[in-house]
Amino acid sequence: MNVLVIGATGKSGRPVVDALVARGAKVRAAARTPGAAAPGVEPVRFDWADRDTWLPALEGAEGLYVVGPFGQPEPELLMHQLLDQAGDVRRVVLLSVLGADRLPSLVPMASWEHDVRMSGREWTVLRPNWFQQNFGEGFAEGLRTRGVLGLPAGDAAVSFVDTRDVGEVAAIALTSDGHGGQVYDLTGPSALTHGEALRLLGQASGRTLRYEALEPADFADAMRRGGGGERAVEWQLALFRHVRGGGNAAVTSAVHDVTGHPARSFPAYVAGA
Ligand SMILES: NC(=O)c1ccc[n+]([C@@H]2O[C@H](COP(=O)([O-])OP(=O)(O)OC[C@H]3O[C@@H](n4cnc5c(N)ncnc54)[C@H](OP(=O)(O)O)[C@@H]3O)[C@@H](O)[C@H]2O)c1
């Protein structure tokens, strides 16, 4: 099966590519800077902001994994138009986010999910919790330089999910039957607070790492100072409101149900297992 992976070099896209190759799929790995070719992987340039790159990337694709156009103006319109142009694609797996149906409409995932459902294709929606891998890449700067992670997450527990499990679930949904019309809430096997997560990470790395519970307004100001647009700021605030309200603490069996193995734990991620 030929699969186009949009966002192929990111935290979720990389394990999706790996899992697809392991299942014998031919992957077209799409990003603005798509990286090098590898067995079973053809890099292709794709930019949400440049429609001329869309059709060449989509050509011949039967399956599509799509990380949506976050950070772009009009992210709803872009997803809508991409799905309109996805000629031969018969299976779509969308990366959404846990709680997409409970978030305010300024977060575009509910609109993306609606478009995927209405696309006339066999669709599967993945709603992962926050990624364990954020602690290695997403939150990197403050942790690396000061050993401090400041977020407006309060002391709420989060059942962080390993992106390798997200990748496996996506690859299974794209390459086998029985996953059409499914929405999978993907979590790790237990919930822990950001403080607990950093304690485990600190013990493993021999560093003192500290979580700082930020006031939402201070977090928003820091985002604005870093160049974040107003919509991106509100979007992040909504996601963290969901966390503080306990919406990211539940543990689901979806990873186990789809892959047949238990979801990878945070301690296993920290140990590099
Ligand atoms: N991080 C989490 O904990 C988490 C949890 C649940 C859901 N999500 C959702 O996951 C999404 C982010 O996915 P991710 O964490 O895998 O992202 P990521 O690690 O930031 O990677 C983004 C990927 O998209 C590509 N990309 C960025 N801008 C692009 C553009 N204009 N056109 C084409 N490709 C572009 C990047 O490559 P180039 O830069 O080379 O283009 C890269 O391959 C968001 O929608 C978020 O809501 C994240």
UniProtKB/TrEMBL annotation:
Residues 7-135 form the NAD(P)-binding domain. InterPro entries: Ergot_Alk_Oxidoreductase, NAD(P)-bd_dom, NAD(P)-bd_dom_sf. Coiled coil: none annotated. This is NAD(P)-bd_dom domain-containing protein. It comes from Actinacidiphila bryophytorum.
